[in-house]
Specification:
- This protein is α/β, with parallel strands linked by helices and about 1000 residues long.
- Helices cover about 40% and strands about 10% of the residues.
- A six-stranded antiparallel beta sheet has the order 5-6-11-8-9-10. Strands 1-2-4-3 form a four-stranded mixed beta sheet, covered by helices on one side.
- Strand 5 and strand 6 form a beta hairpin.
- The structure holds flavin-adenine dinucleotide and iron/sulfur cluster (2 copies).
- Flavin-adenine dinucleotide binds next to strand 3, helix 5, strand 11 and helix 17.
């Protein structure tokens, strides 16, 4: 075979493209996008195929066999050891092969396609009170093909075991392109298959090898196997016997033995699990489901050290918990810096060095409560364990725990927790010794590690802090790995417990199991894939662990001089590169809930995920494209579809701030003479000026520029979608009508930022705001309408935005020289510019940092205290009849509201503030569980973005509005209001207008 294929020849490519309607891409951009997973490695594939259906998947394998092209099947690419990358044709199963083919409620099983995401699978079977047992922390993006490929397991493995324990059968495409259904069969039948003339080559050879291993290697397997059921390294040869040195302590699935195969049967599907795509490509898999347990209680216990927490685990296991997870102090500290997780840390009391989250679950609530009581009395815990009894409280613990790895990776700078010994397991009674000994090893290398994970199963995730950009750091990877592997083997553990071997650990398989088992692994591989086209170099014939590293001597990235600072110091190109490198590839941005990342959620295209954007930016900085122009073009294209929603800043565990990188890139891109801004950018960027000059002649401008009848012309001239209505200039303004709101004799309480949208287009909303403030007795001075410059920033006019900001800051200083007054406003995109972008535009300027802390949305301000110590909202004079009215309101929160971290003063912020404000005046409020509206400022107005904008809206917001005909719809963002109107015909009101309607003004 020609394994040295560097490029697909014209002839092969033509054949592939003819057959594969889902697409085959070999361009440099796609190759960069698929050159990494969540590991420390990087290999550019020769191309990527996107099978549209199972037949196309089959055709790809058949063609690859014909032309001897190496194949790497891939799901979400969240693998941590490099098994989802390789020099070959990647098959991305995650784009189209996402169906649940069949659910059999009685049998408690389901058939799935390989690209189906585990959380989506669980959502589909939840209505039958069923779920898939193994629960990897990455379930929101991990695909079933990936779970099978890696033998995924999770926090509840002490009850459910691993994925291999839940596969009933699999339809597999073998290396020769043929299909086989592998499942549990009687031994005699397996023998027949191994010798049967009727069966085709690959399947027959596979059975021959399996039976040979079962017979000839039984003793060696029992002798060499780690003393734990929690392992994924090498192939699952022990399932062929079937035998395991021990079993998950709470294993009780359908009274099945462990492993779940009768002694007189054989199930090759179980061996396929964990084979990392090296034995066959999964077309479909039939999986066992388990019942969802009705009751759960979580107890979170504080410890003064990791070792102390680990030492108590065997004792806790005697109480039959369903999970025991270790959470280190470092994770909690870092979680505080990621808004979405910071909000969830209510279960943390004090500042413990480590915590154990112990879960009890089942269908007998009384029993669970008894177990919890036993835990509480197990010993004197010092701090009382915190109990999470409601689903919402438990979700907080799990959310923080599940993004642990990503959060730990979010440290700034070049020294980062490195992923190479992150998945070892030892017998649980050896856990504390293991941590102790490993700490000593790490100390010898002058480093330390974060430890967290599945303490119940003896599986800890360990990440030594190293700088892999240096030769020393890379040398230490090998040295530490060797010492750690020796330690874990000495303790009877496994080198990988759930993350697999890939490139990082393949080298250690022989050291762990010895030459005979290595030979058995080869035997199996040779039978299944004689020409070695299936994910070559994984498990069998692996390369050295320190090859194909993401960072090597050749990696010398160069940023450009940004306008905003990416640290607390002055703008610096190297800090810009660091911000790009913050992305570690763990792929949380591929999830289908929350805000991040709307463009991926709508397209399922890796290029439009935050990770894809970060990968392309990094490649550009490292000169990884054939030309600079190609790099600029590629990055521009991907960032063009970024809605700058800041979902990533709030939800990415590493707090990658792609919106900020987008602004900077636009600034840089358009600084090239050959790449000027389009006219439309000026129109949007300088909308305040356009509106100011147009407003006095509003009827004329409205009929010419903003009228519906000129939509076609607007589309042609400015590239604005003709399907969008534009807001109309009001002909009046907040300022014109607002004099009566300010009492010059009285002390000024706050400054009102009259942004250009509310000032010129929607002054009635502005007046509603002012009426509410007056009803609360708040004396408001309205700032001259300069706005905060959001529209300039979003189009990359950063120098202009900085000048603009200086003007606003001067204006504020003139009125409030001592920096005492709050600045409040109605439009989230404007107010949060003061909070989020101004400190970056003026790094080190304390007055700007202080202003950021006293800039509030009007709802946030109303909940805070006036000078007399009473909340403004309590001073509101409300109309009697509406006080207890309780009209239903459905709120869509602006993305920037959702991205706000908890406020330092402890008062509500972001969407919580809107909810609190409306509830205080008697409304019944529900928040739409949605992400970005899809409009994102000017984004949805732009011709080339219209479709994507509507697709994003349709993900959840627009259907939720249509389904709630009874409720009043409220949204603070003007663009969100427009999207709701365009998408549903319903008018969304600013929440302050709802408050105004209940006030005596
Ligand atoms: C933050 C984080 C937390 C994690 N937590 C856990 C955890 O708790 N438990 C756990 O087990 N893992 C965990 N993982 C590892 C990983 O996410 C899981 O193993 C996951 O199941 C991989 O799914 P994927 O879709 O990303 O697969 P990929 O990474 O795309 O692929 C995984 C393997 O499966 C193979 N494969 C994919 N599709 C097919 C197919 N159709 N046929 C044959 N082979 C195929 C691939 O070639 C590859 O070898 C974690 C990873 C991260 C980054
Ligand atoms: S952007 Fe964030 S969530 Fe996405 S892969 Fe990078 S680090 Fe992970
Ligand atoms: S800003 Fe929004 S659209 Fe852009 S990468 Fe981040 S999450 Fe995705």
């Amino acid at each position: 075979m020609n394994n040295s294929i560097e490029k697909l020849s014209f002839e092969i490519l033509a054949d592939l493209k003819n057959e594969i309607k889902g697409g085959v891409k070999t361009d440099p951009v796609t190759r960069v996008l698929y050159s990494t997973d969540a590991s420390i490695h990087k290999i550019e594939p020769i191309g990527v195929a996107f099978p549209r259906d199972l037949d196309e998947l089959q055709k790809i394998v058949a063609l690859a066999n014909e032309y001897q092209i190496p194949l790497i099947p891939r799901g979400s690419g969240s693998s941590l050891a490099g098994q989802a990358i390789g020099k070959g044709l990647i098959i991305d199963c995650s784009r189209y092969l996402t169906k649940v083919v069949d659910i059999n409620q009685e049998e408690r099983s389901a058939v799935v396609e390989p690209g189906l995401v585990l959380d989506d699978f669980n959502r589909a079977v939840r209505k039958y009170s069923l779920q898939f047992g193994p629960d990897p922390a990455s379930s929101e993006r991990a695909t079933m093909g990936g779970c099978i490929g890696n033998n995924a397991a999770g926090a509840h493995s002490i009850i459910y075991g691993m994925t291999a324990d839940h596969i009933i059968s699999a339809e597999v495409i073998l290396a020769d392109g043929s299909t086989a259904t592998l499942g549990s069969i009687a031994l005699e039948q397996a023998i027949k298959k191994a010798h049967g003339a009727g069966d085709h080559g690959s399947e027959r050879d596979l059975y021959q090898a399996a039976l040979k291993i079962r017979e000839e290697y039984l003793g060696e397997i029992k002798k060499s196997w780690p003393n734990t059921w929690r392992r994924t390294s090498g192939y699952n040869l022990n399932y062929l016997i079937p035998w395991s040195p021990n079993h998950p302590p709470q294993w009780n699935i359908d009274q099945m033995p462990y492993p779940p195969t009768a002694p007189d049967r054989i199930n090759l599907a179980q061996v396929l699990v964990g084979s990392e795509g090296t034995l066959g490509i999964i077309r479909t898999a039939k999986l066992r489901l388990v019942s969802i347990q009705r009751y759960k209680i979580l107890a979170v216990i504080n410890f003064s050290s990791i070792q102390e927490a680990c030492a108590i685990v065997p004792l806790i296991l005697e109480l039959s918990p369903s999970a025991v997870e270790l959470i280190p102090q470092s994770l909690i500290h870092l979680a505080r810096s990621v808004p979405v997780y910071a909000k969830q840390l209510t279960f943390v009391i004090g500042d413990p060095a480590a915590m154990l989250a112990v879960e009890f679950s089942g269908d007998d609530n009384a029993l669970i409560k008894k177990q919890v009581t036993s835990l509480i009395h197990l010993r004197d815990w010092g701090d009382e364990p915190v109990l999470a009894e409601s689903k919402a409280q438990q979700k907080q613990v799990w959310d923080v725990r599940n993004v642990g790895l990503g959060i730990l990776m979010s440290r700034l700078g070049d020294i980062k927790p490195a992923t190479f010994i992150e998945d070892m397991s030892v017998p649980v009674d050896k856990l504390a010794i293991f941590v102790d000994e490993l700490d000593k090893i790490l100390n010898e290398f002058g480093t330390q590690a974060d430890y967290y994970g599945h303490a119940s199963a003896g599986c800890l995730h360990i990440r030594p802090l190293l700088n892999l950009k240096t030769q020393l750091g890379r040398a230490q990877v090998r040295q530490i790995a060797e010492a750690a592997v020796d330690l874990v083997l000495r303790l009877g553990g496994a080198i990988s417990a759930e993350h697999g071997d890939g490139i990082t650990r393949g080298e250690w398989i022989e050291r762990a199991y010895g030459p005979r088992i290595t030979q058995a692994n080869k035997l199996l591989k040779q039978a299944a894939d004689p020409n070695g086209i299936l994910n070559p170099g994984k498990i069998v014939d692996p390369p050295k662990m320190d090859t194909s590293l993401r960072y090597d001597d050749g990696y010398q990235p160069k940023g450009w001089l940004p306008i905003m600072a990416f640290s607390s110091n002055a703008p610096d190109p190297s800090k810009l590169v660091e911000a790009i490198e913050q992305c570690n590839g763990v792929g949380v941005c591929r999830k289908s809930t929350g805000v991040m990342c709307p463009s991926f959620q709508a397209t399922l295209d890796e290029k439009y995920s935050t990770r894809g954007r970060a990968n392309l930016l990094r490649a550009m900085a490292a000169r990884g494209f054939p030309s600079e122009d190609m790099a600029l073009h590629a990055v521009k294209e991907t960032l063009d579809k970024c809605l700058a929603c800041k979902g990533c800043k709030a939800e990415c565990p590493s707090a990658v701030d792609m919106a900020k990188l987008k602004y900077e890139f636009y600034q840089f891109y358009h600084s090239f003479r050959s790449k000027p801004h389009p006219v439309r950018d000026y129109l949007f960027g300088f909308i305040a000026e356009v509106a100011k000059f147009g407003n006095p002649v509003a009827p004329f401008v409205n009929s010419l520029v903003f009228a519906d009848v000129t939509a076609g012309l607007r589309e042609k001239v400015f590239g604005l979608s003709k399907y969008r209505k534009l807001p109309k200039l009001s002909g009046t303004s907040i300022h014109k009508q607002a004099k009566r709101y300010f009492d010059p004799i009285k002390t000024v309480d706050c400054l009102f930022l009259s942004d250009a949208f509310n000032e010129y287009f929607f002054p009635h909303t502005g007046l509603d705001g002012l009426n509410v403030l007056r009803a609360a007795g708040c004396n408001v001075k309205i700032l001259r309408t300069i706005g905060a410059g959001r529209t300039l920033i979003s189009k990359g006019f950063l120098r202009q935005a900085k000048n603009h900001a200086s003007r606003l800051l001067d204006e504020i200083k003139k009125i409030d020289p001592h920096g005492k007054m709050a600045v409040i406003g109605l439009e989230p995109s404007e107010i949060f510019t003061l909070r989020d972008e101004y400190p970056d535009l003026f790094p080190g300027d304390k007055s700007v940092a202080a202003l950021a802390e006293r800039s509030f949305m009007i709802d946030e301000y109303l909940l805070r205290l006036a000078r007399d110590g009473t909340a403004w909202i309590s001073k509101l004079r409300l109309r009697e009849e509406t006080k207890e009215n309780g009209t239903n309101v459905l709120i869509h929160g602006h993305c920037y509201q959702k991205a706000q971290p908890p406020a330092k003063d402890g008062f509500p912020t972001g969407v919580s503030a809107t909810v609190a404000m409306l509830e205080r005046v008697g409304y019944q409020v529900n928040v739409i569980d949605d992400g970005c509206c899809g409009m994102a400022g000017s984004f949805g107005y732009e011709l080339e973005h219209y479709d994507l904008s509507m697709q994003v809206g349709e993900l959840s917001l627009l259907p939720a509005v249509r389904d709630s005909s009874e409720a009043i719809i409220a949204a603070s963002g003007i663009s969100c209001q427009s999207q709701i109107e365009d998408g549903t015909g319903r008018q969304a009101l600013h929440p302050i207008s709802l408050v105004a309607s209940r006030c005596i003004t």
